[in-house]
Structures are given as C-alpha cells and as structure tokens.
Write a sequence for this structure.
C-alpha cells in the first residue's frame, strides 16, 4: 500500500514505460537471474493464461494435476482464451511426478490427440504441498528431454520458498522452470502478479499476449510498485514465513483431535472433520469445503493472520470434537 | 456408393436446397420422430463439435467419460473450436452413470468453475460397450433435472441398436437424448455423418454453426444421399448386424485362450494378450493397441468384414498362445 | 487514491462479497437506474470483452466503426477471447449512424455470414467526437428493431456527459444502451473500469464471463472503492469538466494556426500539422500520431492536466508554424 | 465420380495411409514442385482455415481484401477457430496490391494491435478478377520483405491458370505463394479441396491442424482420388477452360446491352442491371445478387454449363433491356 501511494507522484508514461516498471524488472532479475524478464499482471489467472500462451501452438495441450488451479478454478479460461486442452492427471496430494508426465507422452506425434507441450505444476499445490527443488528439477528434466516446457503456477511460490528455506531462484530458474506465474496478491499485494519468463526465446510474444489477454495496465506503475515492494528487503519472505507459521500453529493446535488430509507444508491446513462438526463450524466461521463427502475443510492463513485469529479458530475446532 | 452415383444427375442448387437433402431430412424424421431435424456433416468430429456448440454458452463445460472420443481422439477440437472444458470422469468401461453426473454438479452456480451444461455419452462407447435404453433414460433424467442437456455421440449408434434389437428411436429420442451425432461412415458410407436435433429449441443455430464449423458441403446431395441410403430399407441395420456378428465370431473363436477386457456388445473386441503375443502379432497384422501396459488390443469389425477375415485372425491369435 | 487507502482496513471476504463492492453497486444503481448491475473490472479491454460476451452467440458479429477501440487497439482480444467477427464500418468522424447499421443487416439469416448481433459505439469516439442522447437513441432504436443489442464503450463517457451537460443516465439507460463499459482509469482511477448491465436479462452470465475473462479481483474492495469514489460527490464530473476545459483551452490557443481534424467535443485535440512541424515537435514532446500521411497528431488532456501544461504546449505548437 | 468408384475396391488403411492418397501427393508434387506437400480437405473453408492456421501465432492477423471469401463468406470461421483478426482492405476489384499491404504494416511491433502475419489473396478474386503471375510475385515480395507469408485462396485457381494460359505452378510456387488452398469442388469434384504447402517449414503442423479443424476423412482415398483425377491428364484445365469460355460467351452475348461491373477474367460475369430488370429476372432464374443498391448480379459458369444454358440466359437478359 505504501508503495502504491509512493508511486502516485506526477505523471508517468503509460503502459509500462516508466521508472517503477523498470525497478520491478530489475528486482525480478535480481531474484531470478539475469535472463529473467517480468511482466506485471492483474491476477493469477491472467499470469497463467498469458504464460501458458507463450508456449502453446494451436494443437497443444498442458499436462497438469487434476487439482491444478488452471484446471479447476479459472472457469475454463485456458480452454476459452488459449483453446488448449488440459491433460489432467489424478494425484493424491496435488503433486505431479515424472511418471505422470511420461504416461501422457504416448500422444506425441499422433494427429488424433492434443500434443503435450507444457508440464504445469503449482508451487505450492492446491493441497498446500511443496515440491522440493529436486522434485521440480526432475520434472524439468523429463519435460525438456521430450521437447516440453515446464510451467510453474507460483501463486504461493513465496510460501514454498519460505517453507523450504530456499531462495526463489533455487525453486525455479535453477530447477529448470521455463515460465513462472509469481504471486503477489496472496502474499500481501492489492492486485499484482507477475509473469516471469526464464527462457529468453519465449519472451518476444509476451507483450502481445498480455495486451490481448486484457492484462495490460495503462497506469502500470501502480501494479509494478507493489511487486517491487514485495521483492525488496525480503518483504515476500517475511510475509510468507509469517503465514506459514500461522498454519503450523493451527495444525499444532488441533493435533491429536482432527487429523489432516495433507501435511502442512505452507499456509494451508486441511482438517478432516466429521459431518456434524463441519455443519456446526459453518455456523461460526466462513471457510471453504475441500471435499464434502469426507468432511475435509480448507483453512488458509495469510500475511496478516494474527496468532489470536488462529487461537480462536483452534478453540472453535477443539470444541467440536 | 450406388446412392452417390445416382445423385450425380443434372444440376442441383448448392448448400442443401435440393431434393436429395429433403429426402434425407424425411428419412431422419421417420427414424427419429417428427421433431427431428437433421444436418449432413463430413465427419464425426464435425457432427460432435457442431452439435455440442448448439447447447454451450461461453462458460459451459461438457461432462463426459475420460475415454470419450470428443476427449481423447478429436485433437482438442472441442476446446479449440468451442472453447469449452470437458469435465471428464474416469470410468471402468467407458459408460457414464448418473452418479458420475451428480458428482460434477457441485460446480453449478460457482463462477470459479466451468458450468456443467451437457452430458455427452458415446453409443456404443469407445470400449464397445452398450447403454441400454433405460440407462440412457436415467442419464437424460438426471441431466434434465438439473438443467443440462443430453448429447449422444452415436458414431456407432447403428451397432448399438442392432445389438440391443431396438429401433434407433428407442435409444435416442425416446430415452431423452437432445442432440445426436449419427454415424454413417463407420456403417458403410464414404464420408457422411448427421447431426440430429431432437429438441427443436436447439435447432435455429444449427445452420450457422455447421457453416462456421466448416462442415457445409456445397454439393450436399452427395453427402445426403449416403445417409438416406443407410436409413432406407434398413441398410444401417443389416450393416450393423453383420459387423456385430463378425465381432462375436471373433470373440467366440478366441474364447478360453485370450480373455477380453470388455464384454463384446457391438463390433469391437478387446483381447488381453501377453506382451510377447502382442509384439508377434504386430509382425502379421495391422491393429491398434488399446493399452500397452496390459497388452490390450482393439479389433474392430465392419460392414464388409468377411467370416474368412475373422477366421484368419482367429488362427493368428490362437497360434500366439 | 484516498479511497483505496480507506478501503485498506481489516479483512474482507474475497471476490466481491464485501461492503465496498456493495457500495459500488449502489452507486451505479443511483447513477444509471434501478435495473443497473455493475461489475468491477481491471481495464477497459476487459470490460468490453466481457460485456460483448454477454450478448454474443458463437456465430455472431459486432457492428462497429473501423476506428473503434475494440477493433484497432485491443490486440484482437475480441476475436481471440470471444471468437467474434467485428463488422467494421468506415466513418469520417468515428461515429456510427443508423444507415451504417442498416447496411450490415442483409447478412441476417444467411448462414454464410456472421450474424450481426450487437451495435457497439464509443462514447466519446476515438476521434473525440460526441454522440448526443438523440443520436444514441436512434442507434438503439434501429438495433432493437432488428433484434440487436446496443453496446457502449464508455471509456470516456464521463467526458461525454460533462461536455453534453447531461447526466450519465441520459446518455445511456435512457437512450437505449443495453451494456456499458464505464471508464474509471482515464477519469482519475488507478485501475478500475466497470461493466454496467442495463438490460437485466443479460445479467446472469456476467459473473462467469468476468472470471473466465481474467477480470475477477480477489481483493475487489480496492477496485470497487475507486469506482465509488468517482461516482460519489460528482467527482467523475469535476474531473471530466476539467479535462475537457483543458482540451478547449488548447484548441483555442492554436486556433487560426493549426486546423483541427475533428471538432473538440471532449478531452482530445487533433491538430493537423505539417510534416516538418510534426517532426520538430517530436524532439520536444511525447505524443501520439493519429495519421502520419496527413500529419495529424492526437493530444489528450486529463483530470490532472494543468493550464500551465497546456500553455507550454500551445507555445510549442505556435512556434512551429 | 469415376475416380471415386474406382477407389472403392477392397479395404484401405484409414486416415490417408493408402495408395490413393500417395498418388494424390505425387500429383501435387508434379504440378507444384518437389517441395509441395498436399492434404485433402472436405471444403474450401476447411482448407483456408487450416492453411492460415499454419502461419498464425495467437496475436496475429491476416491482411486481405474486404471482399475475400475468408472475410465475408465463411461465417466467421477464421475468427472462431483461429481467433485471428482479419485486417481488411477495401478494394475496387477484389485485388490486393502491395500498397494495401504496406498500409497495414505500421502495426508491426505495437502490442496494442494484431500483428500482420499473412497476406491472403483469392485467385481468382470474388469479383472474378485475375492476378497475373507478376502481381502475385509483387505481393510475395512485399510480404516476405516484412516477415509475412503469402496465402492464396485458390478455390478457382484452375480458372485463373486457364485464363492466364499459364501453369498452376507459375501462379503459385514460382510467384512466392507459401500456402495454397487448391479448389476441386468448383472445378468438378464432389467434395474435395487441397491444402498445398509450398514452404516446407510450415508443413509439420498440418496433420494436427487438419484433424483439429475437423477436416480429416477416415476414408481418405475417396477424397484423394477426386483430386488426383483433376490433376491427371489436365482434367482441371479442360474443366476450367470450358467454364471460362462459357462466361465469355455470356458476356459477349449481353455486350452493349448490360454493362459489366468487373471485367470477365474467369468464370464469373457481373452484369449491372436495372432494379426493374433484376426483379423481373428473379421470376425466371435463380442467381445471386452481388450488390443490390446498384442492381449488380453475379452469374457463375461451371465445368458442366452448356452453351445452351448460356444462350437461354442471354435471351432472358436481352429481353429485359
């Protein structure tokens, strides 16, 4: 917020030819390496669609977990805007593995099938689970070995890096990611995500696809400034460390009472309640149901969740046992 | 073929305003009921895409089996041309069941998800399995109860009706199907499929979507004549009965030696070989592999398969044991 | 800006279920009438694409001036995202007239052609010219008489209303506009536009198309608050009156020296320079060239343009004579 | 027709792996040069859409005459299936000229605009006018000089070559055409067009786009055989020479009575009638109106038009004076 207010001085050239956007680009190069180019976007769906679009020909598909945000929570934007087919794989924990990718490659070269072109993973996954740098690298290797690209939906990359205790770069550039959606909004920004291109040959189409994808801000400095603020002085890290800590506090607080559907590896907790407890909790709290038949709910902490918030929720949850 | 040659007399008005097309339309009305309107198409993908397009809004999806032809064998045409998301369900035998449909309906009304709008089934399925009239009706009921439509990819509807000993109408119109792709090519035509609309309110868009979908034949009489020939004098039935009989002859011939992956309910047989037998057979015959890890192959008989063709194949298969 | 900062208090439910969004919706109802529903968007292309999408079937086209922003300045977003054809009409001054619409209607009912479905006008036009309420109403009448809708790209509707001395409603709801893009960004917002639906039957698809069009802000209060601020206390009007006044000041200052390509009816001035003057001016100022062969440039004033800014530019322009 | 019947012997591998398709491919290589690859399609819209798709990225547009078939007579298929924008140019006679192309190139590199990528011309044009080999070559040069491709919609290329007294190759390969739609249906086939790729680097995507574009015939031999028959023994040439001769006979027969809108350069004649004559003729003949306000009608002759057909029409037309 402070960054936005600070950017509100005088006039600036529209559409990104301003110094705030230059600063943002520098900040991403510093964080992800010299070859990184970054483009401010309004939201995560926009970053994902534009980023995938850089890699796809008209007859290409995207291998992803069935639980991926691009598959289940973007209202079919990928199909509508890109005309692509998502080649979904059922997973237990939201994590794609090399064998999942290999299982889709029989279609290569067969005109009757969408051609696998991109492997897309979410870091952290929609289940809150984390890919280690080695796991990302293994996916990058299998993708590249078969002429595919590796895309990361990093709406919560910050949480992943904070949890793994690694740099942003170690989980992306160094692990073979070609195109990244870098999440800002879930990490404290008002509305700011970035498309980060780590393979320069994919860069030239980005300006055109961003504009066509309705993600070009005329007053771009206000979007760019948010991203710069997150990257500078490790604000992204502090925010993510805090959010993750709150999730662990929550998990610890209900341990032994409510089992968890997935391990806590970021800022999300998935308690398995009973149907009765779930119904009762709905009268007290607003939360999202992950899987109703098994009474799994999804609780997500954020940069501004307080220990008190968590403790109140713990008390509620414990009282339902 | 005879029908095409017979249609090659004199001039005719282009784009379907000719007597051959009128005859075809009459033939479909006779077979499917008074409300049926029929549109000649070049191939099955065309009929499916145009037919689905009649029912879909920009944010709608199609519930179908993961094995459906529209999902796995049309090169992403539905996603590219319609921009739709296929909401796929894993099935054991290619058959969608009411509980599969119900499992997808939680998305209704939630803007984050593609909206289920159509239930699409293949009759017979890609596994060669058959929906009974009652099973189709049950799907129609659940679809209609929730404001969805029922679409049938009937590329091999003739085989289904022949096997079930029922009329075309009993498996479609009378069972609640709203839009049908009627297959001609697999049943003896050179290149002719029909989109058959059984719910009149969906009809007005058909001419426009067919043209836009690049399925409008300028010399339509040659396509229409093929379809009329199949429907008249029960040629469709004779062809399908024969093809099915050849499949059963094949299945009977290898019974006790090679188990089958799916029951034979039409003109397809799916023997489970060994890896060694599969490899050996490839040196003798051209066939398609259904699932390589389990050595399942797919053998399809047709209107012109002879008992000798089948017996030769049986001999080959038996020799591989 | 103040509004954004004010909205940054405490937590709010995501995706628009918050009190800032409710206030915005109320503000639009007050300005445009009881039936108006409003949806916050990130930018004008987003509002246009989503708004047009409400009205278009897969085989429909949009009648618009060739100079329209949706045709020339949105990088083909309408074709890509909506798959629609823009049925463009050459105009002298950017203004569509009833006879232009009538000239496109021969295609109605002919399957070989995209079907005209929407008349889209820009208020003010890309040439800075203004439609009177009567002119809008005349277009609405011809559109509605033939089953078409009337869409207004109102990126600068505020400037139009300020210039016409009329209310927002008089130029839209009361003149038969069905769907409106209401511009905030050019009128002082950081990044906020609104899709305003004036024909309730078109409303149900809006949430879905906004999400699919990648225009759904998770922290919507920050977008909504900007729009509310513009609508409350007539801020939109003050900003637009000022911008228009600056344009007139500029036009007056160069009168008699540089002729204008279009009359000044809002916040844009289009001087016809000489090639030499244009080249010389490029060394001193950053501006956009409207039509190079005739040396027409485009100068746009804004809510924060000062009289001094204008006078400096006048001095520059006069010195080039 | 004879070719189709001849192809109806025994079984053949589906989807083009048959000897009839091989023969067709050879025939196209012989006619268009060694680098030519050819793909059978069902109709001209299919060939155009698939062919353009080979060259277009998601943000690209196609420069064409406003009168082009792809713009005005394919129901928006290019926009729907390819998501492309057609960058139309008004012409007097349907012929695009290098200056038209140059006038569209200002958009190159500007993210706000669709990027010109293909120049598409119709040979002969929808006005029946002919591009000379030199004119085609001039367009090819300007296109290639700016990184664009040259596409030819050759639905009536045969008529053009016959009229010009040149080979098919002289008007295409040798003149710089990169991708060609070769028309068969208007030249005597039942339903057969070919996509001919003259620039090998564009070839790899063809199989995939044809399948996705719903133009893949399973029993391809019947389509291929038609094309081979046209190319062998110069049948294409005899048919086209005859059709053109009939058009000239018609034009000569009404010379001095009814002026022509365009010169006769192929198989189309565009007499300028009076409104009264047009109305009267409608009671006697079925024909298409080209431009109602000026009473221009469009008369097209074909491979099977007889001199008697023409003379009857001449008599009718002369009687209307």
């Amino acid at each position: 917020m402070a960054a936005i207010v600070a950017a509100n001085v005088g006039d600036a050239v529209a559409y990104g030819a301003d110094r705030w956007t230059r600063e943002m680009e520098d900040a991403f190069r510093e964080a992800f390496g010299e070859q990184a180019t970054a483009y401010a976007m309004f939201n995560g769906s926009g970053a994902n669609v534009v980023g995938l679009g850089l890699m796809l020909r008209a007859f290409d598909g995207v291998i992803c977990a069935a639980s991926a945000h691009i598959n289940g929570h973007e209202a079919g934007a990928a199909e509508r805007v890109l005309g692509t087919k998502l080649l979904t794989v059922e997973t237990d924990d939201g994590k794609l593995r090399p064998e999942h990718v290999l299982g889709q490659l029989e279609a290569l070269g067969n005109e009757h099938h969408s051609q696998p072109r991109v492997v897309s993973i979410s870091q952290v996954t929609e289940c809150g689970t984390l890919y280690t740098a080695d796991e990302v690298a293994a996916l990058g290797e299998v993708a590249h070995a078969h002429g595919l690209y590796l895309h990361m939906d990093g709406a919560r990359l910050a949480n992943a890096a904070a949890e793994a205790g690694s740099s942003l770069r170690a989980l992306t550039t160094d692990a073979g990611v070609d195109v990244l959606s870098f999440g800002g909004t879930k990490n404290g920004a008002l509305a700011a995500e970035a498309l980060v291109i780590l393979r320069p040959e994919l860069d030239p189409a980005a300006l055109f696809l961003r504009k066509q994808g309705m993600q070009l801000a005329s007053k771009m400095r206000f979007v760019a400034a948010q991203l710069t603020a997150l990257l500078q002085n490790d604000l992204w890290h502090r925010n993510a460390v805090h959010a993750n800590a709150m999730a662990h506090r929550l998990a610890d607080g209900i341990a032994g009472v409510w089992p968890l559907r997935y391990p806590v590896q970021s800022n999300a907790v998935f308690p398995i309640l009973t149907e009765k407890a779930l119904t009762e909790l709905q009268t007290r709290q607003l939360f999202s149901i992950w899987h109703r038949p098994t009474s799994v709910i999804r609780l997500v902490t954020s940069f501004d969740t307080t220990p008190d918030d968590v403790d109140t929720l713990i008390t509620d949850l414990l009282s339902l046992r």
About this structure: The mean pLDDT of chain D is 95. The interface with chain C takes residues 58-59, 61, 72-76, 79-81, 83-86, 88, 90, 106, 111-114, 292 of chain D (CB under 8 Å). Residues 41 and 215 of chain D are 5 Å apart (CA to CA). Chain D has 13 helices and ten strands.
